Amino acid sequence: MIDALDIDLVPVVAEQPDPVLFATVSGAHLYGFPSRDSDVDLRGVHLLPAADLVGLREPAGTRSRMWVRDGVEMDLVTHDLRKFARLMLRRNGYVLEQLLSPLVVHTTDAHRELAALAPGVLTSHHAHHYRGFATTQWRLFEKTGELKPLLYTFRVLLTGIHLMRGGEVQAHLPTLLGEVDAPAYLPELIAAKAEQEHGGADVDHARVEADIERLHGVLDEAQAASALPDAPSTTPCTTSSYGSGWRAEARRTRIRKSSTRRWSGSAGRGLVCDALSASSASRVIQDSTSGHGTSPRLTVSSGSRWSLTSIVRRPVRSRSRALMRRRRRCVACFQRGAPWLRTSASSFLRWPSA
Q1: Strands 72-80 and 297-299: what pairing?
Q2: Which of 15, 206, 229, 319 has its CB surrounded by the most CB atoms within 10 Å?
Q3: 232 located within any domain
Q4: Residue 136: which domain range?
Q5: How large is the C-alpha radius of gyration of the chain?
Q6: Is residue 231 situated within a structural domain?
């Protein structure tokens, strides 16, 4: 069986069209029950250039590559930093497990920055992720009778309980056995899984079902008593004044102010908040030119509010002084805003009239 840490990703990383910020091992190797024929799941983040984020077309948020090495299937899946940041903020324990995986095969300063931000996005509502994941895997076990989804069911429930009690993401099942009240037969199931990836589960179904129900109850109790906050606890990012639509997204991010330094020029600092801000700008511009509904309104530094849709889509029937003054003020407002918005927004406002 290939060692998950003995993977030379340098050629793979070099072939990617955009910088890869990190790549870690996930899946059964991370969870502590790989089989002899298990594939190696590599997960990570790549960094799109700012020009791809501010435009009329939404860039692909996920890239994947599969290949075979020494008879073992390798699977590399990376998310754009903006998408990964969104997933971090949506109570998604899966991406946090990837980010905090100790099986690191490629890392950068940005990886360390994201990992440092992870504790600030943990909430008691992450229990919903693990509860739902466990339900899905249990249904798959009932349908197939395979050992793999059964172990996944136990693993995610124990991870959720551990997170609610201690505020730590721990995805390694053998480690969890010594820290959380777990059924005594789990080590035997882990040993059986090592022999065959898709083998059947030789278990007492009624007993296993009762244990799963009990762990669901333990997770509920752990969530109710958890010291984790209801919302991300990091400081909200503040790049400029936000309109109503942007302000809501800024609240959801809860990323510290110090992470707003820059997007391009450094792959190690200030990326998370900028990723989310750039995604907001792209969506506003798309909404403004698509003809669907009313775009979010941008609150400028002077406190006035202008609708980007009304400015971009309204035909200019006259060159009245009032209209020209309004256009000039709006352009000036955007020029005082963030650099990634200035060029695109100003170009829309300066389009020739129909």
Answers
A1: unpaired
A2: 229
A3: no
A4: 126-224
A5: 24
A6: no
